[in-house]
Specification:
By secondary structure, the protein is of the alpha+beta class. Helices cover about 25% and strands about 20% of the residues. It is globular, with a radius of gyration of 27 Å.
Length: about 700
């Protein structure tokens, strides 16, 4: 008697298809898992080989540092107290081994190492390269991520649980792959928060939630209370070391940290918090406490930094904030109210407009036609529907300054009247190391030695790659009567500070009705302009009946270790009666005896160049000093306006060209061979009604 056959089986047999067994399915699944493990294991090994400190020696052997000529180191020079103020040079954004991301990239430099480096001592990068400042710094604030305070404090203790030992092992072992994983996990997921009719590059408000506690702070490891206590202990050590290394007149040290909430797509919404005073807060407020809302940060700081304590916050990488920094909205979807704007006006006195991850002054094609806004730009203007990875209108300081003029009309005060500084954001414990010839990357062994700075991680966007998007970083300069905490902090608060892209260009900028253009003919004009005007960072109110432009005075001197100066520009922003904002850039002083072309408003090119084989600059062109006055021919006493100065020097070699020389390689055509370094003053505001 024939066997019964099920209909489905008979159809498969009739069509000649074999019936798969469960065993074959499991084998296929196991093979797939094995293949994936091999693939990702191989990728991890490749990444490890390219970024690990213990494989760096082989890469370091490929370069010859003797092929690059370095200037002789200068000792720290003492500046006697000066009523007309001295320029002091410093770093307000640097990381050490206390930052988890620095550890994962192999950095071992301690807080103490960073202070000694600021005084002129030598360090080695995680990749083995020698690092040393040509000139020591005058002041420094070490700004490790507060989110990591307390996370590794207990890792040296005995009797840790298995959970704690695993977490400590991960957090103390260099591992670039783990960094990439943690960066992805710590940021909110990308969401479609743009409407189809939203113009490109306009920030769309959205809600976000704060990040959770680190694994080491989970209940299995003692809970958040234990991490809270450990965080207090870590912050106490920062304050104690800042006091220990403070040497008035030689090196001024500020207790500080970085507030680092995450953004989707590799974005930044970070601020450095810098303190002054004798009774600082017991605990460093991080984004784990208040999410990414800066308003809650300021309120928390105001409550805990009370008597004999003061602070400022300094935002950075506004260019990668996806439009959030100068929008009227907060990180978590709220909208600024007048009291919130007042908090910002009180404590956000400066903005970091230049650092390793690019320039945040302005962007060509994003509210600006200024050709110099292409300098160190790492992002293209946003395309329709693009949410991250592009240049938004409210991501740049010039747009923020213009937004401040509009808010002044609306609120009666300007909450976005901020000054300019720059920094490195280095993660090697080397504060102020912004010299192109000494660039060792900012990501530990992931970017050092030199050959690693030339390798881009597969599928990494250009705006995150070292070669194509990283600069050598910049410096902050503050005008103060003496090199002490009180004097330099007061200079920062009154915005009498400026930024450079690395060279120590000296820059003074004044405006007022109390001196004439002939002041440049005086032997000592600074006393006159100080008495008759306000310096950078100041506010001018036109006297009753005054309709003429104030006189603007500029004096700039070249860095003797860099190139001569080429030109001085004035950048103006203003708001008209219809509450529309505008901007204009004019060259006002030219080098080499040139005059400004009245048709273009620009100086002729002085054709200064660089010998790329040696990085020697052209001699006999440019100026060691530029000084002059200017009056605005379009001045309107009834309009709110700001003016700031931008000084451009002759071209010099970009860091990548120095590396090409070290490696005996051709210059990579994907990046410029030279850079036109510069300085940016803080603005001077014209306020028709004083506020």
């Amino acid at each position: 008697m024939p066997q019964a056959v099920r209909t489905g089986d008979s159809q498969r047999i009739a069509s000649g298809v074999k019936v798969p067994t469960m065993k074959k399915v499991l084998v296929a699944f196991a093979f797939l898992l094995f293949s994936l493990a091999v693939f990702f294991g191989w990728k991890t090994l490749v990444l490890y080989r390219a970024t690990a400190p213990n494989t760096a020696a082989l890469d370091y052997a490929l370069q010859d540092d003797s092929l690059v000529s370095l200037p002789a180191q200068e000792l720290n020079r003492y500046h006697a107290p000066n009523a007309l103020k001295n320029a002091y040079w410093g770093e307000l954004h640097i990381h050490t081994v206390e930052s988890l991301d620095a550890v994962l990239f192999g950095t071992r430099a301690t807080i103490e190492d960073a202070y000694r480096f600021a005084r002129g001592e030598t360090l080695r990068s995680a990749g083995g390269e020698r690092m040393q400042l040509a000139r020591p710094l005058d002041f420094v604030a070490i700004t490790d991520h507060a989110e990591g305070f307390g996370a590794r404090t207990r890792c040296g203790d005995e009797g840790l649980s298995l959970h704690e030992r695993i977490n400590c092992g991960f957090m103390q072992t260099p591992n670039a792959a783990l960094f990439l994983v943690l960066r992805r996990l710590s940021r909110p997921p990308e969401a479609d928060f743009l409407r189809g009719d939203d113009p490109p590059g306009v920030y769309r408000n959205r809600e976000r939630t704060r990040s959770g506690a680190l694994p080491i702070c989970s209940p299995a490891s003692g809970g958040t209370d234990r991490c809270w206590r450990d965080g207090i202990a870590d912050w106490s050590r920062y304050k104690e070391l800042a006091d220990r290394y403070y040497e008035p007149g030689v090196l001024t040290t500020f207790a500080a940290y970085e507030f680092s909430p995450g953004l989707e797509g590799g974005g930044k919404h970070h601020r450095n918090v810098v303190f002054n005073g004798s009774h600082l807060p017991e605990r460093a407020i991080s984004s784990l406490d208040v999410g990414g809302n800066a308003i809650d940060l300021w309120r928390g700081l105001e409550e805990t930094c009370a008597e004999e304590c003061d602070f400022i916050t300094i935002p950075h990488n506004m260019n990668k904030g996806w439009g959030l920094f100068y929008s009227p909205h907060t990180w978590d979807g709220r909208t600024y109210q007048p009291d919130d704007w007042r908090l910002r006006m009180r404590y956000e006195r400066l903005a970091e407009i230049y650092q390793v991850k690019g320039a945040s002054e302005c962007a060509l094609g994003v509210g600006s036609t200024d050709e110099e806004c292409s300098f160190s730009q790492v992002l293209q203007p946003c395309e329709p529907g693009q949410k991250t990875g592009c240049a938004f209108e409210t991501s740049f300081s010039r747009q923020g300054l213009k937004a401040g003029l509009a808010l002044k009309r609306e609120l009666g005060f300007n909450p976005l009247a901020f000054g300019m500084v720059a920094a490195t954001d280095g993660h090697n414990g080397n504060p102020g190391d912004a010299e192109e010839w000494d660039f060792t990357g900012k990501l530990g062994a992931a970017a050092s030695p030199a050959i690693r700075r030339f390798r881009n991680v597969a599928n990494q966007p250009d705006y995150q790659a070292v070669l194509t998007s990283h600069t050598g970083g910049g410096l902050a300069a503050v005008w103060a009567e003496e090199n002490t905490r009180d004097a330099i902090f007061a200079g920062m608060k009154r915005r009498e500070a400026y930024a450079t892209s690395g060279p120590r260009i000296t820059l003074r900028f004044f405006a007022g009705w109390g001196f004439e253009q002939t002041v440049v003919d005086l032997r000592a004009p600074l006393g006159v302009v100080t008495e008759g005007g306000v310096p950078m960072g100041g506010v001018l109110t036109p006297p009753p009946g005054e309709t003429q432009s104030p006189t603007f005075f500029v004096w700039a001197a070249a860095d003797p270790l860099s190139a001569p100066l080429q030109r001085v520009q004035v950048v103006k922003g203003w708001i008209d009666d219809a509450r529309a904002t505008h901007e204009e850039v004019r060259d006002v002083i030219c080098s080499d005896g040139f005059a400004v072309d009245p048709a273009t408003g620009r100086c002729p090119d002085n054709r200064a160049g660089v010998e790329l084989a040696t990085c020697q600059i052209t001699s006999g062109q440019g100026a060691g000093e530029l000084m002059g006055t200017w009056k605005d021919p379009m001045f309107d006493e009834g309009e709110g306006a700001f003016y700031y100065v931008r000084v451009l020097q002759n071209p010099t070699c970009r860091w990548s060209t120095y590396d090409a020389i070290r490696l005996r390689e051709e210059i990579d055509p994907s990046v410029p061979a030279t850079i036109q370094e510069r300085a940016w003053s803080s603005p001077i505001w014209i306020d028709p009604v004083s506020g």
